[in-house]
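Marked as duplicate of an earlier ticket. Keeping the data here for the record.
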Amino acid sequence: MRDGIILPLALLAAVLLASPLEAQTFLHLDSEEGDYIGQGEELFLDETQGTFTATRNFDNGVTVNFRTESFSTWWTLTFAAPRDAELIPGPYQRATRWPFQSPTKPGLDVYGNGRGCNTLTGRFDVLEVQYGASGEIERFAATFEQHCEGNEPALLGEVRFNSTGDFPDPPDSDGDGVPDTLDNCLLVVNPDQQDEDRDGVGDVCDGEFNVTGLFFDSPAGDWVGGGKTFTLSPIDGDFSAVHFDESRVSVRFRGDDLWDLDFETPEGMLLVPGLYQGATRFPLPEDPGLDVSGAGRGCNTLTGRFEILEAVYGPEGVVERFAADYVQSCEGFMPPLVGVVRFNASEEYGRLKDSDEDGAIDIADNCPGLPNRDQLDSDADGAGDVCDASLEATFVLFDSEEGDYIGQGLRQLFTNATHRIWLERNFHDGVEVHADSEEASYTLDFAAPEGPDESILHAGSYDGATRFPFQAPDEPGLSVSGDGRGCNQLTGRFDVLEVEYGPNDEVHVFSADFEQHCEEGQPALFGSVRFRAEFIPVPGDQDGDGVLNEDDNCLHQPNPTQVDADGDGVGDACMVGICPDKPAKLQTLSRRRGSPGASVEVRIRNLGPETEVWFGSTQAGVIRRNRRALIVRVPALPPGKVEVTLREPSACPTLGAITFRVRG
């Protein structure tokens, strides 16, 4: 038998409308379908079914408990005002779970019978509260609304403890129509509650405009920011800032979540306004230090940069004003977390610093002097194309077959934005390429066979390579290793596309493509190196727009923004001319590898009368045509991987790309 009862509506109304002179004690729960706490039921409990108590909690609020004699039914309801203030009659908005609420928000928690929220949002109205001489609760009445775990279904309810039922209007000290519990300027009339700097103090009684807050712009995959864009201001929690040893400022936020932001100069220098490049995780004395963490998430390693816009210090570590923008990349992840911190900052820093007004703040803008909303950086050198005097490619690309030990079957692109890429001469007059980051470093060696006069690398093809530096004198040397992995033995080949040496034989420009097999014929690691090279699109990006073929919604027309207004999967750049309603789509190949001249069946959905098959930038000859397939010959191409794609006349869109390996 249930200890609580469900009352007929008429009886419940009679109880709620009892004489104001009669003390009322009861708990009424009205749970919407899907609410976990109340299980979607309506429940009424009074003193005939159990015992009610009301006490002060440690946040100076009120906690009401109900227990049946057998403890088979029990409920606890906790209410607290912001900043440990004493509860008074009035509405309390933006409540979160007590006792973990932000100092600036009310606390609420209604739970019972073994069910409670991990997180919650809600509101409550204190209708009546009366304290005794020692602060004990003599009378209390409140209504509430609670949502568990961000879910829409609500638990609605009302609780009364020795309540008179006589509820006058809540206090409104300045008579502006805003109850004291919500008024951001208690003694000055301000019905609009304007608070431009969002510090919780209404503008009409705010003597100084200061900017305090945190802004996070976190891309998908960023661990610290959780892939969200959000702002925290003083109405969300408390901010503090401390200046340590002149070289470091720590900003703290304490709200529903906790956030810590540290900025430090290298070698104990004074932290003053300016740009600090090459930051690593605080504290490392030789580099600028940066560490942004919170909500239980932080970086093990990081790289980034920050700009101090304003820094005013007082005595004994006091920070009077502080403004900074930063970019932080956790564990080498790109794109990075972009953020803004302000602490009592001057009004001029209330806006994000975006000098060219293109929507990218300066600290994250790859061309802060010229508007470039798409932030296109074709050669991945960190400088946007609109202000890049010469498109020079610097990157290391791995395209690893499944089973390859070195590349682990992954496609990886290392650029100057993610790694430090640099070259030196190796001791065989060859070239040694380094791609270094805090997470992993790779080394690539290329060496020419010994010749009658010299063994310096020149542009050309180098077949029959073996492991550097143990290759025979008449063999090229090759070795690609890193992240703790390397070949004991290897075979391979490479093509040097471009190489330039300086007056002291240093390497100025280098471009090479390679193929490496560990341990006698294991799956291949294909790859490319570009260092200050004449711009060559990343392999696998047929139209050179910075979007790899498998992700590109318009393979044959550069469209870095990938705009697709009608959402049909075909980029607008391809929507020219008269095209079929349904674009041709590459489905399968009868074989994924073969020599030039070999026949391959290419199955195509929506095959058109003029659909063409292309191996990279070379069209394949058609042997015969079926309703759903073309049988073509592999073009005369050098050994290696190419992307097989489709093309239609008038740049009509096609879909699909499949990798094919051309054998020697």
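See parent ticket for discussion. Residues 9-16 form the longest helix (8 residues).
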